[in-house]
Design brief:
The complex is a heterodimer. By secondary structure, chain A is mainly alpha-helical. Helices cover 70% and strands 0% of the residues of chain A. Chain A has 24 helices and no strands. Chain A has helices at residues 3-12, 17-27, 34-50, 65-78, 81-84, 98-114, 130-158, 165-176, 179-189, 192-207, 211-224, 232-245, 249-267, 275-285, 300-307, 310-313, 316-343, 352-374, 384-390, 398-411, 413-418, 422-436, 449-471, 481-520. In chain A, helix 4 (65-78) crosses helix 6 (98-114), helix 7 packs antiparallel against helix 8 and helix 11 runs parallel beside helix 13. Chain A is globular, with a radius of gyration of 23 Å. By secondary structure, chain B is an all-alpha fold. In chain B, 66% of the residues lie in helices and 1% in strands. Chain B has 23 helices and 2 strands. Chain B has helices at 4-19, 27-41, 61-77, 92-105, 107-119, 124-134, 137-147, 150-165, 169-182, 190-202, 208-235, 239-246, 262-279, 312-322, 324-330, 337-354, 363-375, 380-395, 407-424, 432-435, 438-445, 447-456, 466-493; strands at 426-427, 430-431. Chain B has a two-stranded antiparallel ribbon with strand order 1-2. In chain B, strand 1 (426-427) and strand 2 form a beta hairpin. Classes of the chains: A mainly alpha, B mainly alpha. The A-B interface holds A 15, 17, 20, 25, 28-30, 32-33, 36-37, 40-41, 43-45, 47-49, 51-52, 130-131, 134, 141, 423-424, 427, 430-431, 434-435, 438, 440-441 and B 4-5, 7-8, 11-12, 15-16, 18-23, 124, 128, 404-405, 408-409, 412-413, 415-416, 419-420, 422-424, 426, 431.
């Protein structure tokens, strides 16, 4: 049997349910229905989750993220762009970059066409009718299926040579059914899938060596949500390396610069005339007056603060400097490693582009995780960024990504619980664990047994904290005990994952090269 | 026993069903809540007399006892659920509780299907067919959204048929009797059981005394079941009231949303002819004053303008006549247990096509036994008929969930199921889709424009809101009727 066939057999010989589903489809000659069923199932689960609660439901006067997004549709539709970043800043003032504003405007146009009362200026605040909710939920789904889903499908299809058919579809399924994105976007209510969609497009263009398009996609990503800047160092160093590596590097650098400036410029076009407007946008999008962290997030600073009260020891300026330095120290090793590897890539060895994309994926995870752990004003939803990048590696890092998703979902629990998304949380948590890792199955040959044992311990720890939260009431002196335990546990795990993914980035090319050597022997 | 695949399937099913709890639920929800209240609050002697609510108890006693059992848990969770005067109570606790009872009672269906898979050879095809039955839109949309307990009842039917397939006729008879005491609609397939048991169990051998003994055994076993169920009520002198409750004939010929049966086509033809009569009176004479409220899709006596009216007795005669292929199947030279399943399908199909006030939900009565037949190396004809019938039948269920919120749910569930059914069920090495003829494929694909017309373009028909429903009924009735002929032909001529 040839080496490729043997490798395929080994890749396909799995006991994990989601793997077996796709192998089953292949065995029944039913590959044609694979993608349609995956996408329809993704739609079904999203819509089912949409039936449940959302951020700020029935909580006047301010409500939550759901009302914020609706309010932005209202204000962008009725007011001229010059007022968008000034209008009633106390009631959900616009604090995302312009592309979100444009998206809100587009949704506002559609909403107005169907039923103007949903976004009537001023009077529609806090509207929570059945039909308005349907519209809002539908808008998230439509936008996701237009931006995120095609990107994921196309990206994994592009990596055809490296993966077997079943593995490719398992990756698509996993990337689409990742519970955290699902619950935050379609439960809590946000449009993160659009930002992640643009990022996946960027990686897709990287895989096709279309660097200008990659730069433009990434601009769209961070101009939609400034959180996308968590990926910026990785993207920057990747493109910078291409400038060094490729023949007309200087020209490429120029083109990239123009592309970035051009796309940002186009998106800022309505405000480009007025410096005051631009400054206001900057102030709204980057609110530096806020503190080191808000609420409880599985971030190093928040975790450290449990023991050492940082906020009372240092002043804000010092803390900003501290976090900036820490973040830079955290992401630079990964970025520099990728930069030098790419620069010195030998174009004659196989799979240069594939290796580049692999390195990029690892670097994206490491950079965004570095920002999440050490940056300023991090929200717990920001874990979606490392997750989004990690799912690009779901075929290379099966058990690590599985586990990472589980812990990330656990870290989101306090947020989801507040939104009344308890049931969907449990269904998705159990579903993800059962379908992708199947603890009840005999040992998967590809997962080391020590890892399985540690995963069991991890699950046990999370369940214990959940049980404690449900059954016990926290002591009066520590009212947020279980949230704090959640934060401490998640943060610890995230730090471990950070170290692990950095390590994997250092060795990933080596293992791929070994596999390539085996193939050619 | 149960392998990881089975558990994964149940897991997915339960997950989706749990996520669906806030979705729309119909008046059937209130019906069952009211029955919980009746059985919890009143003594047994009052159960069939209580009429404070519109939704009186109209299922046989075993179902009442089932509700009584559930009501204890309900009272522990939230006492207001079982309050008789608390009409239309639909708080979260009530909805979640009732949905959970449906999910839990479906365990019966799951276990029955596991047993059926073993009885039909445990092949991949059997497992696929069983999975498709367990996760079919008929259960997901009707039981878990609209709200009913069909899964658990059809589970008992599957048990009954499986016992027959295993050769245990007495158990099959007893379980069928039990099923009848849960929901008497299954009486439509009783003739099949009757003839089969007589032929296969009682008079199989040549000895008269053995036959007589077996007949007596059978009669006694079934009699005991009925005695346990109805005995107490007969003893209390409530026979008349029970019969009145169980067989309400005041309802009209057609259900509010026309089930895709012969009468739907009949009604449609009548409407068409009356339209022609209005435009060109010289061609067709019509009694326009007879046109009742059936155009508006409400329950009431259906009146016809051109074609003759249909009294209930006519439907009985028609149904019985239509059931003759089933008896013919049972009277074939070899009387193997598969014949019972085939006859059940045909009886259920006939009663669906010609019955009085048929619900489109009754399609499950045909599809579940047919699923058992598809599980065991079916012929291409049977597989094709199954494909057409299941897709048309399930599609006719979609109008039951009429809200915009449920639109993506029902469309996605039906599409996923149809894709899996067409691709994963095989006959002679070919998938169901490959077996379909060109016309059949066109018919199946025709459901897409039908969906666009009936669901996505609501304003198109203005005040004639019944037109999309009529379209759905007529189109799916064609498929249901066609598959009936195919199945009858296939069962009467199969050489196995």
């Amino acid at each position: 049997m040839s080496e490729t066939k043997k490798k395929e057999r080994l890749q396909d010989a799995s006991v994990v349910p989601v793997h077996r589903w796709f192998q089953f489809l292949k065995s029944r000659n039913a590959q044609a229905i694979s993608l349609p069923v995956t996408i329809l199932f993704a739609l079904l689960i999203r819509w089912c989750v949409s039936l449940h609660g959302y951020s700020g439901r029935h909580t006047p006067p301010l409500y939550g993220d759901y009302e914020a997004q609706r309010h932005w549709m209202e204000l962008t539709f009725h007011l001229p762009p010059s007022q968008w970043y000034y209008y009633d800043l106390q009631y959900w003032g616009l604090d995302y970059p312009p592309l979100t504003a444009f998206q809100s405007w587009l949704c506002g146009v559609v909403a107005n066409a169907i039923d103007p009362s949903w976004i009537a200026l001023g009077v529609s605040r806090g509207i929570e009718t059945h039909s308005s909710k349907l519209f809002m939920r539908a808008s998230v789904i439509v936008l996701e299926f237009v931006t995120f889903v095609p990107a994921v499908v196309l990206l994994f299809r592009l990596r055809d040579m490296q993966m077997s058919w079943a593995a490719r579809h398992v990756s698509i399924f996993s990337a689409l059914m990742q519970p955290c994105l699902l619950l935050v976007d379609h439960g809590h209510f946000q449009y993160n899938a659009v930002m992640l969609g643009f990022l996946v497009w960027a990686v897709y263009f990287a895989a096709r060596e279309q660097h200008v398009l990659m730069a433009i996609s990434f601009c769209c990503s961070f101009m939609f949500k400034q959180m996308g800047l968590y990926y910026a160092p990785a993207v920057f160093f990747f493109l910078f390396a291409q400038c060094f590596r490729l023949q007309y590097g200087g020209l490429l650098f120029l083109k990239l610069g123009l592309a970035v400036l051009g796309s940002v410029g186009i998106m800022l076009f309505p405000w480009i005339q007025s410096l005051d407007q631009l400054q206001q946008i900057l102030i709204r999008v980057f609110p530096v007056a806020r503190g080191l962290y808000e609420d409880k997030v599985a971030n190093v600073w928040c975790a450290v603060n449990v023991v050492i009260k940082l906020r009372s020891l240092f002043d804000t300026q010092a803390l900003v400097r501290l976090s900036t330095v820490a973040t830079a120290l955290a992401f630079l090793p990964s970025c520099l490693h990728m930069f030098f590897k790419l620069w010195h890539q030998n174009p004659r060895t196989d799979n240069t582009t594939a290796n580049a994309v692999t390195l990029l994926s690892y670097c994206l995870v490491n950079t965004s995780l570095a920002f999440f752990l050490f940056s300023f004003q991090v929200h717990e939803k920001s874990i979606l960024l490392p997750l989004g990048a990690a799912l690009l590696l779901v075929d290379k890092e099966e058990w690590a990504v599985n586990w990472f998703v589980q812990v990330a979902l656990f870290s989101l629990y306090p947020l989801l619980f507040k939104d009344g998304l308890n049931l969907p949380y449990w269904v998705m948590a159990v579903g993800w664990s059962a379908l992708r890792s199947c603890p009840a199955c005999p040992a998967d040959t590809r997962t080391p047994s020590i890892v399985m044992k540690l995963q069991w311990l991890s699950t046990l720890a999370m369940l214990t904290i959940h049980l404690g939260d449900t059954l016990l009431s926290p002591p009066a002196s520590l009212p947020n005990l279980f949230v704090v335990l959640n934060v401490l546990y998640s943060c610890g795990m995230f730090v471990l994952f950070f170290v692990y993914f950095n390590y994997r980035q250092l060795v990933c090319l080596r293992s791929d090269a070994d596999a390539a050597k085996q193939k050619s022997d | 026993m149960l392998d990881a695949n089975d558990i994964a399937l149940v897991g997915i099913g339960v997950g989706v069903k749990l996520l669906l709890w806030p979705a729309y639920h119909s008046t059937d929800f209130e019906v069952h809540r009211n029955w919980l209240a009746i059985t919890a609050s009143l003594p047994v002697s009052r159960w069939y007399y209580e009429s404070r609510s519109l939704w009186t108890l109209d299922y046989p006693p075993f179902f009442a006892w089932f509700e009584w059992m559930l009501s204890h848990a309900a009272r522990l969770l939230d006492p207001r659920i079982v309050d008789l005067d608390n009409l239309d109570y639909a708080a979260a606790s009530c909805v979640v509780f009732q949905r959970l009872t449906v999910i839990a009672s479906e365990l019966v269906l799951f276990l029955a299907l596991c047993r059926a898979v073993r009885a039909t050879g445990s092949s991949t095809q059997a497992r696929v067919a069983a999975a498709l039955v367990f996760l079919s839109p008929g259960f997901l949309l009707v039981d878990h959204v609209h709200f009913q307990y069909n899964g658990f009842l059809l589970g008992i039917l599957v048990y009954s048929l499986t016992f027959a397939l295993e050769g245990r006729d007495l158990l099959a008879a007893v379980s069928f009797a039990v099923l009848l005491c849960f929901k008497h609609i299954f009486m439509y397939i009783a003739p099949a059981y009757f003839v089969y048991l007589l032929r296969h169990h009682c008079f199989a051998g040549s000895k008269i005394d053995v036959s007589a003994l077996r007949l007596a055994q059978l009669g006694l076993a079934v009699g005991v079941v009925f005695a346990i169920a109805f005995g107490p009520f007969v003893a209390m002198g409530q026979t008349h009231q029970l019969l009145a409750r169980l067989f309400p004939f005041k309802r009209g010929l057609c259900h509010a949303f026309w089930a895709p049966n012969f009468w739907a086509l009949y009604t449609f033809t009548d409407r068409l002819l009356s339209l022609i009569a209005r435009i060109a009176p010289q061609l067709v004479t019509a009694n326009i004053s007879q046109l009742g409220s059936s155009t508006r899709g409400r329950v009431g006596d259906t009146r016809f303008a051109v074609l003759p009216d249909i009294p209930p007795i006519a439907t009985f005669v028609a149904t019985f006549a239509a059931q003759t292929p089933a008896f013919a199947v049972l009277m074939r030279r070899t009387c193997r247990p598969t014949r019972l399943v085939q006859a059940t399908v045909l009886c259920a199909h006939a009663s669906f096509m010609f019955g009085w006030h048929v619900h489109e939900k009754a399609i499950m009565l045909i599809l579940v036994p047919l699923g058992l037949l598809v599980a065991a190396a079916p012929s291409q004809r049977v597989l094709r008929a199954h494909a057409v019938l299941s897709i048309a039948g399930f599609y006719s269920l979609l109008p039951l969930l009429f809200g915009a919120q449920e639109l993506p749910i029902k469309a996605a569930i039906l599409l996923i199921w149809s894709l899996c059914s067409l691709a994963l069920l095989h006959a002679n090495g070919h998938s169901a889709w490959e077996c379909l003829t060109r016309v059949e494929r066109l018919y199946v694909l025709g459901h897409f424009p039908l969906f666009a017309l009936s669901e996505l373009v609501p304003g198109l028909f203005g005040h004639m809101q019944f037109v999309p429903l009529a379209l759905v009924s007529v189109y799916t009735a064609l498929g249901v009727g066609y598959s009936w002929f195919c199945l009858a032909a296939a069962f009467l001529t199969d050489r196995s």
